[in-house]
Amino acid sequence: MTKMRFMTLERYITEQERKFPEATGELSRLLSDLAIAAKVISREVNKAGLVDIIGFTGETNVHGERVQKLDEYAHEMLFKAMDHGGHLCIMASEEEEDIIHIPPQHNLGKYVLLFDPLDGSSNIDANVSIGTIFSVYKRISPGDGPGTIEDCLQPGYKQIIAGYVIYGSSTMFVYSAGTKVHGFTLDPSIGEFLLSHPDIKIPKKGKIYSINEGNYKYWHPGLKKYIKYLQDIDPDTSRPYSSRYIGSMVADVHRTLLYGGIFMYPADVRNKKGKLRLMYECNPMAFIVETAGGKASNGKMRILEVQPEALHERCPIFIGSEDDVLMVEKFMAEAEKGKMM
Ligand code: P6P
Q1: For residue 166, what are the β-bridge partners?
Q2: How close is the Cα of 339 to the center of ligand 1, in Å?
Q3: How many angstroms does the Cα of residue 64 sit away from the middle of ligand 1?
Q4: Best mutation site among 116, 275, 318 for ligand 1, i.e. most ligand atoms within 8 A of its Cβ?
Q5: Out of 3.30.540.10, 3.40.50.2300, 1.20.1250.20, 3.20.20.450, which CATH number does the structure's domain 9-197 have?
Q6: 70: part of which helix (H) or strand (E)?
Q7: What is the CATH number of domain 208-340?
Q8: Tens digit of pLDDT for each residue in 167-192?
Q9: Strands of 208-210's sheet, edge to edge?
Q10: How many whole angstroms from 340 Cα to the centroid of ligand 1?
Q11: Within 6 Å (CB) of ligand 1, which residues are found?
Q12: Mind listing the pLDDT tens digit for each residue in 294-334?
């Protein structure tokens, strides 16, 4: 009989808080508020197919992408869940051009929240897994007023919590406070996230690569060589690797975290900084994967050390098993050297 493990997210957060006497409980309540928003969004996402929610609003977001109603809904749910707890001084969303001010009576908190309310939303109508991604930083501006843009533009290694919610065959809440990564699966019958994946560790090397190969012609020559290397036959190094690409970052990174391998969204001749956003997608995922023992690079350096310059800046990303990320960096560096010779 397997030992019944009934650890809810709430109970886990409370137990973690007790380990730190100086903890004020603010972070615990912040995480709990995020979990509530996740449950509400999960309920709507799982109603996929209902015309009154699914479908386009006809408007576009800050990046000129058509906004799906669920995008707006997720953004609103997160704002409403987080704007009155008093734990935050400022927020920023992938769906909003500027920073999001918090009502004056609640905006002196010591934390900063950045979130992508519904990443992968172009897949909503196809019922493909999508997700919410979040990052929590400590404010760096003086504590006697609302937060500022500087509070939001901190390098990724300054994150104190990062996580994602994946709305798939089940809804999972995966987060890290920097020492371990834990996954909690939602039991809708009791409305609780239960600890299902304690202390997730990513394999040191995988055998799956994940990239949009439709962009092959635009890639860096070193990346082209790397992908061809993965497709060569060599059982001793698990080659050829399998290719898996869902087109929803949360789903592709979640699989990479659990199974190992590498997810890539590189820069190319058309998009010099790639497509994915540094603050809303790359930094939180890098924090989680590095805590799980993996690596996250922009092709040249740790993503977590990139100094942000703009809220919505994009960043190339190579993320996953340590050996696989090191290998693609090697191929690209050698191609650069070849260019210089
Ligand atoms: P492409 C979804 O739109 C997204 O932002 C990420 O979730 C995903 O990894 C990427 O874009 C997919 O982009 O160009 O391969 O369709």
Answers
A1: 131, 172
A2: 30
A3: 15
A4: 275
A5: 3.30.540.10
A6: helix 69-82
A7: 3.40.190.80
A8: 999 999 999 999 999 999 999 999 99
A9: 242-243, 208-210, 262-265, 317-320, 295-297
A10: 32
A11: 119-120, 122, 212, 247-249, 252, 265, 275
A12: 999 999 999 999 999 999 999 999 999 999 999 999 999 99
